[in-house]
Structure formats: structure tokens, C-alpha cells
Amino acid sequence: MTVKGLLVMDVDSTLILEEGIDLLGEEAGVGEQVAAITERAMRGELDFKEALAARVALLKGLPLSVFDRILNKIHFTPGAEKLVAELHRRGYKVAVVSGGFHETVDVLAERLGIDYVKANRLEVEEGILTGRVLGDIVTKDTKKAYLEKWARENGVEMAQTIAVGDGANDLPMIQTAGLGIAFCAKPIVQEQAPYRINERNLLKVLELLDRGCK
């Protein structure tokens, strides 16, 4: 079956209401420190790669079982399930690309039937987080590259792609997609994105798509 289009979404504060790494910070007793770094990174005030490394280092010593508790605190953004289902019905592929972690993102993606996932992976030794990330860190360039990669693999023109995110590291993919949307986003993203949604309802993505915003 011919793929009609592709949606790529950020996860934290876009697909879900929370910031996953901030929840992990709370579990480690360093919630305020982690949240402060997250906020500055999303505003574009800090290099994302350095900011992620600093936050992950604060999580050292947490047991892997923490992710079960984190998942119980995570809520999908209103409209998420219906958006994914409707785009699938229309012949779209749906993907998420996240500066968060496979340990939670994979579970969330499976719940919604999302087609592709790219995220970071935490290093674990004997069931304990080491405070390091395995492999390459997902950056703003990674997000843009995977939007292009998944579109190419499915024979989808960039004009038929949608990108949705809230942070500065989402801007390159938002600006590259045929329909690039800042979702309840930080000021720098609001200013530079072609389109904006400022209501926490992902079904608003369909309204823009159906209006022919390209």
C-alpha cells in the first residue's frame, strides 16, 4: 500500500504532557536541578548534548525498575491516540524522535501503534543506571535527519511530511517538514516555526493538515 505521508513528533511535552527526564530527576532526589537544565535546553540557552549529559549524570545510581514507576506518571497529551489512529487510517506513517530514552519511549510508542522510534539509551550495569548515555545522543540534527530518512524509506515527498515539537532541538525538523508545527512551544520555537498550536490538543494537527497548510 502506498504511504500517503509521514508525521514525526517529539515526545516530552508533545506526545506526552510530562518531561520524562524531569520525572527521573524527581526519583533521584534532584528534580529541581534536572528541571532547570531541561528548561534552559528547550529554550535554546544550552547545547542539548551537554545538557543531556549533565542531567543523565545526576541519575547515576537509580535502579532500572524506576522506569515502571515513571511510566505510571506519564500521560498522553489529549488527542494523541486519535491523531495517530486517524493518520494511520489515511495511510500515513507515524514516528517519534526523542531526546528522551528508549526505556520509556518504546513502551509509549507500542501503546499507540507508532511505526518508528528514535531515542537515547541509558547505560545500565547490574540493573543500575551508570549516569551515562550509550551511543550517539539524539540532537536537533538527528531529529531532522530521521525525518528525512523515514520519508525517503517510504517514498514520501517532504511536502507530505509533518513535524511537531516544542523545544529548540525540534526546530530543524519543524522547518524542514512540509507542515512544521510548534506545539505549546518555547518562545524561540514559536517565533521560528511556520505554524503554531497553543492548545494542548494534538487533534489540532489534523485541523492544520485539513486546511491545506503547507
TrEMBL record:
Keyword NADP: no
GO cellular component, one term: cytoplasm
EC number, UniProt record: 3.1.3.3
Residues at the catalytic site: D10, D12
Pathways per UniProt: Amino-acid biosynthesis; L-serine biosynthesis; L-serine from 3-phospho-D-glycerate: step 3/3
Reactions performed catalytically: O-phospho-L-serine + H2O = L-serine + phosphate; O-phospho-D-serine + H2O = D-serine + phosphate
Protein name (database record): phosphoserine phosphatase
Organism listed in the record: Streptococcus cuniculi
